[in-house]
Design goal:
It is a single chain. This protein is an alpha+beta fold. It has 3 domains: about 1-35, no CATH class; about 50-90; about 100-145, no CATH class. Helix content is about 35%, strand content about 25%. It contains 4 helices and 7 strands; from the N terminus they run E-E-H-H-E-H-E-E-E-H-E. It has helices spanning about 20-35, 40-50, 60-65, 115-130; strands at about 1-5, 10-15, 55-60, 85-90, 100, 110, 140-145. Strands 6-5-7 form a 3-stranded antiparallel β-sheet, covered by helices on one side. The chain has a two-stranded antiparallel sheet with strand order 1-2. The chain binds zinc ion (ZN). Zinc ion binds near residues 7, 9, 36 and 37.
Length: about 150
């Protein structure tokens, strides 16, 4: 049986319900008070998935090869270009470049593959800076190719 339900988000949507009358009624009641329509649901999920992640458009093949464990943006698959928007956790960017850099000037010193590795490299640098008595707190930074700090 099809019902036109007004969800708690304020949007109306047709839902199809089966089963006993009382069960259908209680479901409708739930939708009206707590449920959100499918568009709002997708939006909520997108927000949930995007926390701590960045949206990256990539080929579906790349997604399947390197990012299969990541969530994808609902309905972001582009059938013509075969691309999809993937929520890539920050700092887990496999094809993303990370550099140890001088914080003040942004000059790249060396490239590392992960934030963890970068932090270890910075630790080493700071150790030798201390040994040479040229240590400055917060001198080093980890940046991406757009010179944005990833720390
Ligand atoms: Zn809605």
């Amino acid at each position: 049986m099809k019902y036109n339900v007004k969800f708690s988000c304020g949007h109306e949507e047709v839902v199809e319900l089966f089963g006993k009358y009382a069960d259908r009624e209680s479901k409708i009641d739930y939708y009206q008070n707590y449920g959100v329509c499918s568009a709002c649901y997708r939006e909520q999920k997108a927000i949930e998935y995007s926390i701590g992640c960045e949206e990256r458009t990539m080929s579906y093949r790349e997604y399947k090869t390197n990012y299969a464990e990541c969530k994808t943006k609902p309905e972001s698959y582009d059938g013509i270009n075969k691309t999809i928007v993937v929520y890539v956790p920050k700092g887990k960017n496999k094809d993303h470049h990370i550099y140890v850099a001088c914080k003040e000037t942004g000059d790249r010193i060396t490239e590392v593959s992960t934030i963890e590795e970068g932090l270890a490299v910075i630790k080493e640098y700071e150790k030798s800076d201390k040994a040479e008595d040229i240590y400055t707190e917060g001198f080093y930074d980890l940046i991406d190719e757009n010179r944005i700090s990833v720390l």
